[in-house]
Queue: 4 jobs
Job 1
Amino acid sequence: MQLLWNFYELLGQSLFLVLAVPLTLPCLAGAMPGYLERRRRRQLEEALPEVLESISSSIGAGLGLQQALTEISRTRQDETGKLLSQAIERSRTTSFDAALAEYAINSRSILIQRVVNLLSTAIDQDAPLGEVTNSMSVEYDRLNKLINVREKDMTGQSFLILMLMCLLLPGVMGFMFAVFGLAATGAYWGDIHGVMMPYLMASAALSVVISGRMLGRTKQALWWIPFWSTLSALLYIGLFEAIQSGMA
């Protein structure tokens, strides 16, 4: 009970913190669908070169495109196999082209939709599908590698920004104000919390937006603003109060 009361007193240091704390959990819940959807889409895109290579091999063995996709749907147990199975099942009541287009739409991936459009164009123009799918397999494998490299680099840089602005900055400020503004020496700086906490929360929010913009996911990053802003403010005020209590 005393711990909860102390936590309530920390929240009372800033109206902005009181408003941000109740928003943290709902916003984290709101961020999860976007994260899961992006992870699902990337899994489909990373499987794309292997699927195209399998199509090329099957066509080289004398099978048609529909037969090749049917075989792939039977052998793959991942999300790609599931979507292809649905497309093959749908093709029994509609045309194969319509089912293939539905697979592209259900993937919600621009890369996969582009591949399906290229395949449809190649079929309409009687292009050699074996060579076309083999070339696309190589190109999209390179593209996936480039995307993964960029994602890794940008993720590291964006995470560094969050660590600096949401953890290091409030930690340094809380430590500095607590050590050099010790209440026992008559130099208490606690009155500055009303200014510092909104400043730190705004800095955290801005860093989250910048981090999301770097990754190309600004809208999804907005869900994380209450979490990082609250964490920044609590770290600052918690470290300040802990040092003040320890040195009193």
Job 2
Amino acid sequence: MSLPADYHMHTRLCRHAEGDATDLAAQAVRLGIPEIGFSEHNPMPRDDYDDWHPLQEDFDTYLEQVKKARRDHPQLAIKIALEVDYISGLEDWIRDLAARHPWDYLIGAVHYVDAGWDLDNPKKVAEWKRRDVFEVWSDYFDRLTKAAESGFFDIIAHADLCKKFCFYPEKDCTPLYTRLLQAIKKHDLAMELNTAGLRKDCKEIYPSPQIVGLAAQMGVPITFGSDAHAPDQVAMNFAEALQLARKFGYTHTVRFTQRKREIVPF
């Protein structure tokens, strides 16, 4: 089976992953993947913001690591990107990051629903029990919709990351999904099918089949991402992601080169 490009991968520079870029690229070569993209987390304006964004001093190291991976694996198409947290008030910082390098694409993500709570952080699961789950989901999707509307990004990451620890609201979230997908479509973005959810408590690809079905109805294009944090996670569970995509009629994915998009079959 021919696998699509894996556009969501991390290295040890994010401080919660294993392996350098060339290690993950070597795994992609072993799997016969024609193209990958590194999308390391963005550095934050302050290195003490949290313990899982790369340090500012490692920015150039990231660029050099990807260049080395390209030299080590010339048979593999390797794109370079960032997964950027969309946080209100940090728009100038995002613009600065976008201008620092001729990126192939930028992935927009939301992890924080307020300044002190990254809702997918295993160290902060207890915070979920103090909050109204529907309000958290509403805040999360509102922020992700604003990310889609911002004009900064090419791809929206793990669209329902808020399900990671299986805190599900009792209210219908379809309006939240629809609003997000409408913004993605209007601003000509892609949505990723992120297989990391299968490795988490929720045991489900991000986003859910319901969201993928709605996206297909709206004509929202897709990419594929393993969200690999170690070499053995490259393209992990892509068979399941392809099955999900095909279930709702998808036959093509999109790839990027210096932020220009092309449609390719899978």
Job 3
Amino acid sequence: MDARGRMLVILGAGESGVGAAILGKQRGWTVFLSDGGTIKPSVREQLETLKIEFESGAHQMERILSADLIIKSPGIAEKTPIMQAIRQKGIQVISEIEFGAYYSKAKHICITGSNGKTTTTLWCYHILKKAGLNVGLAGNVGQSFAKQVAEENFDYYVLELSSFQLDDMYDFKADIAILTNITPDHLDRYDYNMSNYVASKMRILQNQVAADSFIFNADDPIIVSQIEARALQSQLFPFSLKEVPENGGYADSKQLQININKQQLTMSIHELALKGKHNTQNALAAGIAARLVEIRTEIVRESLQDFVNVEHRMEFVAKVNGIEFINDSKATNINAAWFALESMDKPTVWIVGGVDKGNDYSELTQLVQEKVSAIVCLGSDNAKIIAAYKDVVNTIVEASSANEAVAYAYQLASKDQTVLLSPACASFDLFESYEDRGQQFKQAVRSL
């Protein structure tokens, strides 16, 4: 892309924004970064050293609207006044991923889905790294993709992509696309319209040609109906816990198998590094991707056995007087909490709550009935949760901090029971982020 004499405006000074600024400067753009909030001192220092112009605390609209191209943080919603003004002016807006791809010659393995995408991304990266490939990790995890394109020279990237990132991607192409599942999430950003959200997720397939691959969950009815409604050129590689595909992956209660071009990998389900049906699906998706880049079956098998999962996702914290504490703070929607509760094999005190994104708590009623002995609500407004479960669980209490939630849970749990933080909600009513919520939970557990 020719940058001569062209103005690049970047909205947001987070990881992706700063990475885009670094790449833009390197490639000859006139770069201006604007953040309506405060910019961390370390980031300010970095921008000053690189001689990248920036502002914080406000947006100079005239300057922003003079841009030839705008890269926005995935967190900025379309309904904000700044985005409405930009759209009215007709300026092209893209994501940092799209911008990085303009200058990347690497192969892109891209993962999206409502749940399981971080685990699948990290698992896939782990296999490629273990096989000795020159591979980068970016998107929603790792360092900024654009920054790595500027400073590294990877042959492969494993990219975790959110629906927000995909919304601002147009020319980008995934060489291998993975779709883990589609369940209601972030509906507040999609006018509470599920079809808008589904359309965002399916953007991972745009621009794919016959040489490209699409790995998908064949047990997900939404994905299957979307595939049937489209004339896809990609090669299809389904994974399933119900049927054995000719080319793809399958697992039952005993064994996992991956069949790619008549070569088969089989292993015991009990050898997988992570337990639970959802993690079996993640393993199948990552394993198929690895086989498609021709990694030897024995390395794939070893990597499916020795992978260590991401922090804040079903993370064992401690056992205190026989009570097990699990940190699943990354579960920010109903479906993620469903997976967590489904994998519980002991009576559970469930810590739930935060910023509701249009949740339908009735989806969890049966699991709550079967698994949950008490509920601790950890949010500033818990009325919807209490209304959903007051006739299902005898004990429901409210807490306004991680310390208070852990103290209540410790009192309510008996020996050989589990305390599970799996909030089903975003965190920013009481915490800075889901990571902050998870760290405070772990600290509170360790202080018992």
Job 4
Amino acid sequence: MSSRFGYIEAQSLQEASRLLLKHKDKASLLAGGTDLLVNIRNGNIRPQYVIDLHLLHGMKEIVPLPDGGVRIGALATLSQVASHSRVQTDYQALNEAILTLGSPQIRNVGTVAGNICNASPAADTAPSLLIYEALVNIAGPDGSRVLPIQDFFKGPGLTALDEGEIVETIDLPPYSEPAASCYVKLGRMRGMDLAVAGVGALVNRKKEVRLAFASVGPTPLRIKSAEKILTKEPFKRSNIEQTLQAVRKAIQPISDVRASGEYRTAMTAVLTKRALEIVKGRLSNRGISWE
């Protein structure tokens, strides 16, 4: 069903914020539009105004930070992020997550910021951002604020953004220690499908572990209780088995058209074990290994 709406090209971030505050839930932001336009076409949402951000060129950049991290502009496309040399070498889980997301055509217009602002529990970029402990830089009518990614997701389709607020950039902090990471995903088909389950894993040289998950709860989630079991001995078989039990207890997968909750629980354990094996191999390739 078609939907008519007013189209506005924002000239600045401040103007976009003011327009959002003025029109509230009657307005939607357009960045990549890969979700927005589909939802409008299907009648899932009916905005009276669509505010296009494409003129805000300063938000399209990916830049190094003085502390060694990387800042991703909210309008940088998924393809830009995945092909960035620092993302490919230092933030491999994010690179891998993006490459599982849709088709090249979708990645050429979609954005990481859009993926998290959609707040789907199955958001593929979310687990990698969680294991990197990314920071979300938010602009709004009352100024700017910084929010840890773990505090950004509030529920299916719900974020911590207040009225008039817009994600401006996402910061990937530097590692405190050399580390390896990965993202593994199970879908019904390769590409073009939401995750039945997804797992991001990171282990650093100090044997600290981070684990995050997609499509197994009301939001993307990091399970610190499972991480603690692996810390100091991340690849010990008995620790991995205890960790898998902790993961099974912590997740809350639903049953839907893609998979049953029981299947998601079983496959999340499989993917977690696989992710740890991949990270172990990558650490070994960097000359870091433990028995």
